[in-house]
Amino acid sequence: MKLHWSPRSPFVRKVMVCAYETGNSDKFECVRSPVAMDKPNLDLLPDNPLSKLPTLVLDDGLALFDSSVICEYLDTLHSGARLFPAEGRERFVALQQQAFADGLLDVLLLWRQERNKPQQQQRPEWLAAFGVKSTASLDALEKLAPSLRLDAINIGDITIACALSYYDFRLPDLQWRDGHPALAAWHARFAERDSMRRTGPGDGE
Questions:
Q1: Which end of the chain is more exposed for a tag (fewer CB within 10 A), N or C?
Q2: Residue 31: in which H helix or E strand, if any?
Q3: What total number of domains does the chain contain?
Q4: 106 and 34 within one domain
Q5: What sign has the CA pseudo-torsion 37, 39, 41, 45?
Q6: For the residues 109-116, what does the mean pLDDT come to?
Q7: CA pair distance 182, 184, nearest whole angstrom
Q8: Structural domain of 175
Q9: pLDDT, tens digit, for every residue of 138-192?
Q10: What is the rounded end-to-end Cα distance, in angstroms, of the chain?
């Protein structure tokens, strides 16, 4: 298999954390595939017409995207405890938490893009809206923190951890830990997992 990959993408990191947690990290080749909003990657287009990361190409040529689909596929390739609960309320809580953290990452990516524009091109109303969504999300996650897992983790825990780590990587000035002590304590312990240590964002190969 082949994974179109970037060391800076939080959605790629989510997939890589799942790969390590399920023992599948050696089952695919990572191919660095730079993408940008204004410049589609022509080499990626045959596998993903949206030119988005991550994209996992199976041995039979089927290309899987986005991160939630890839993670669930990887969860079928091992015999251990599942990251995606099979049924019942537990499954839908995990999926809801994954969707929540994925949505927060979408907000953070757009917020960073807007902040990186020249000041005269920035839209203050957009920046304010992103700030409101970020604050509300962190407050909700603080309330959720006592129920987040450090053992028998699932896809919700992984995605939330990756979203919080993205604040540290790209938006450290927002100081997300302020006012969120329970969430900060949970994240500090979750970040000690081998899967998180191995997948830190940066400029790796």
A1: C
A2: strand 29-32
A3: 2
A4: no
A5: positive
A6: 96
A7: 5
A8: 88-194
A9: 999 999 999 999 999 999 999 999 999 999 999 999 999 999 999 999 999 999 9
A10: 18
